Amino acid sequence: MPELPEVEVTRRSFADRIAGARVLDLQLGKPLRWPLGVERERLVGQVVQSVGRRGKYLLVELGEGCLLLHLGMSGSLQFAAELPPRGTHDHFELVTTRGRLRLHDPRRFGAVVFVATLDDPVAQKLLGGLGVEPLEAGFDPVSFHQRLKQRRASIKQVLLAGDIVVGVGNIYASEALYLAGIRPTRRADQLSKPAARRLHQAVVTVLQRALALGGSTLRDFSSAEGQSGYFQLDAMVYGRSGQPCRDCGTPIKTLRQGQRSSFFCPVCQKP
Hints:
With 271 residues, the chain is α+β, with helices and mostly antiparallel strands. Helix content is 27%, strand content 21%. It contains seven helices and ten strands. It has helices at residues 4-18, 40-43, 121-127, 141-148, 155-161, 170-180, 193-212, and strands at 23-28, 48-54, 57-62, 66-70, 76-80, 90-96, 99-104, 111-115, 253-257, 260-264. It has a four-stranded antiparallel β-sheet, with helices on one face. A hairpin with a 2-residue loop joins strand 9 (253-257) and strand 10 (260-264). Helix 6 packs across helix 7.
């Protein structure tokens, strides 16, 4: 599933190129997770102002309204002057004067939703409960620790919930907890102030590293320019069950938390 770094890498790969483009046409395939919520005629003629991001949502700002794009579990975007004919799994295409923006999504858990403004109830339902952005100034260690003290669930599950800090998905939560020396099963409210500070810095470090490496390509992720990510080759624990820890040599272990796999070193990460 594309996580925050993959979504941000995607945004950066086409945002500047599509800004200023005028919409010529809209082409749809099979229905995605939610209805688009707008007629084709309302989009044709509009100009793309910018492409932002909130959590794992891309925000394509138009002259009037905004398209919220989510890549779901298997989605990826392409943007190019010309693309091959649409295939079975190409379910959304915005044709503009600067190229075609196409969503490819084999499992159709992705979404493209039009909202008049970001104050629209639909936008608020999707974005309103998201936590702070981990790579922005609002993510500070003091507030982070205070919020963790209010949660009795395991720290891994709290990170994945996204209501304290947004976008730290399964891969990067496992990696950040390793870097901070914290077992994924530790209760969030039991983290000391120093431990929370270590985790705060680890989240920032891991996400910045992932951005620098173009995200992670485990199956089919690629940027809008078709580039794969390489963070998975640098992973310390994720996907390395049974392999020796890169620091101490102890075999990496795996456990299931909320139907997701958590990877950790039983020596380097304290219970």
